[in-house]
Amino acid sequence: MGGRTLCLLLLSAVFAYADNSAPTIANDFVFTFFNAYIDSEASDVQLVAKVSNNNNGTANVVVTSPFPSFNTIRVSVAPYSILKIPITPESIEAQFPGNQTNHGRIVVEDKGIRLQSDLSVAVYAHAELANRQSADSFLVLPAVHLGTQYVAVTATSTSIDTEYPNMIAVVAYQDSTQVTIGNQTVTLNALQVASVATMDVLSGTVISGNKPFGAISGSTCGIVASTCGYEAVMLLPVGGWGTQFVAIPFVDLSTNYYQVVANTNNTVVSAGSTIITTLNAGEYREFQIGTALVTSNFPVQLIQTGQNTGNHYNFVGAPFFLQLPSTDKMSNTGVLFQPPGNFGDEGGVLLSYILRIVTNLAGAGTIQIDGTTTGALHYKHVPNSDFYYYESITSSTTHSVTTNNPGTKYSVITYTYYSYYGSGFNCAFDLPIENFAATTTAKPTIQL
Ligand SMILES: *[C@@H]1O[C@H](CO)[C@@H](O)[C@H](O)[C@H]1NC(C)=O
Ligand SMILES: *[C@@H]1O[C@H](CO)[C@@H](O)[C@H](O)[C@H]1NC(C)=O
Ligand SMILES: *[C@@H]1O[C@H](CO)[C@@H](O)[C@H](O)[C@H]1NC(C)=O
Ligand SMILES: *[C@@H]1O[C@H](CO)[C@@H](O)[C@H](O)[C@H]1NC(C)=O
């Protein structure tokens, strides 16, 4: 493209929100991928950054990385549309085939990815095997929401095959960021990635730093209910955790697995009126429940895990990680999304795409999906709560969720099933602004 120069206006909405929270749509993001699957026989891994432009204007996006063979990407995202940006080369994954280090010691690499846009956008990272044997997506937290303390969640059971370790990967936003993962400390420059891979369970590992950074954790192929799949989630900083969550089993399941981690001693976690566990800081618990309101006396991070639903197609679904936003983080910001599934329905393969909306009492009957209001009677009540949810099979195309009702708050989740395949992410919700350095970033220049 020509030599046109656009100035990115990184005017943050920070002062517009009296409670210091903002939706997870923004202008500046850093993230990384860790390996989706290490398998000498597996097909290629495709990595994509999905940019959702829910504005009546073109978003100009630039993607950079210090990874040696990475070429800067400059693209435009049309108004009210989603663009899948392929991230290459595949070896930018933190641990890649033929070079695996699962000894649990920190490896530092130049594998961070930065995505900037002149208009506020939502960004979802997705990794998928070309043979559709494994996939997962995560919402990329904007740089303004990055914190300095996280607690990892990984699989509690890994394959006996040492090619499928649990992983933590952190990405620095600024130079001279000192990060401690468990009992190891490193100093990173901006967009350097520190990762650990081990067959041990890393759930509960505390990750802290002296400057805000991003953290992704999960498993290259974690086992849940005897099926393994790629599990990846961009962790919420502890300042973004909550004490009340709506837990709903994925479609075709009556109960579902979850993992909860704590950052305060004597954290009591309950589902309805039943106490599930009491955790100390840095402890985790895996549990299985049906539809319930999950509450705690101190903030926790709650991850829902996909699993094989064993339904009539047999082996439909596989493990994946879904970060559940706490109910106080629900938003009324319009959402534009496509369900996960990079290869879609090509080759006559039909994936199952699902949409879930969780809302408050004011929300049932006041939310538009693709411009049409879904009646209140279509919502189900979450027992012992003031919350309702709507879940529906949908298509792989672009969808919108909006409301005009000031009292409505919702969270929107989408996930996709196929044989041995499960992948899901959260659309938009509100989070506290923690990274004030990112609210005053110098305006970068995009060459188009
Ligand atoms: C989008 O912008 C165009 C040009 O400014 C305007 O004509 C149109 O009404 C806008 N659409 C919406 C949905 O705001
Ligand atoms: C393996 O990874 C290490 C650490 O990034 C790197 O120094 C080395 O060159 C890699 N080896 C191969 C064969 O890719
Ligand atoms: C660090 O933690 C790991 C994992 O818990 C443990 O195996 C190792 O012995 C610890 N090392 C030190 C020096 O404490
Ligand atoms: C939390 O509990 C652990 C284990 O009992 C203890 O070692 C630690 O000192 C406690 N932390 C605080 C802040 O009380």
From TrEMBL:
Name of a matching Pfam family: IgGFc_binding
Keyword tRNA processing in record: no
Signal sequence region: 1-18
Domain IgGFc-binding protein N-terminal residues, every copy: 136-406
Superkingdom of source: Eukaryota
Keywords annotated in UniProt: Signal
InterPro entries: IgGFc-bd_N (IPR035234)
Alphabetical list of PANTHER family matching this protein: IGGFC-BINDING PROTEIN N-TERMINAL DOMAIN-CONTAINING PROTEIN, IGGFC_BINDING DOMAIN-CONTAINING PROTEIN
Designated name of the protein: IgGFc-binding protein N-terminal domain-containing protein
Species in which this protein is naturally found: Plectus sambesii
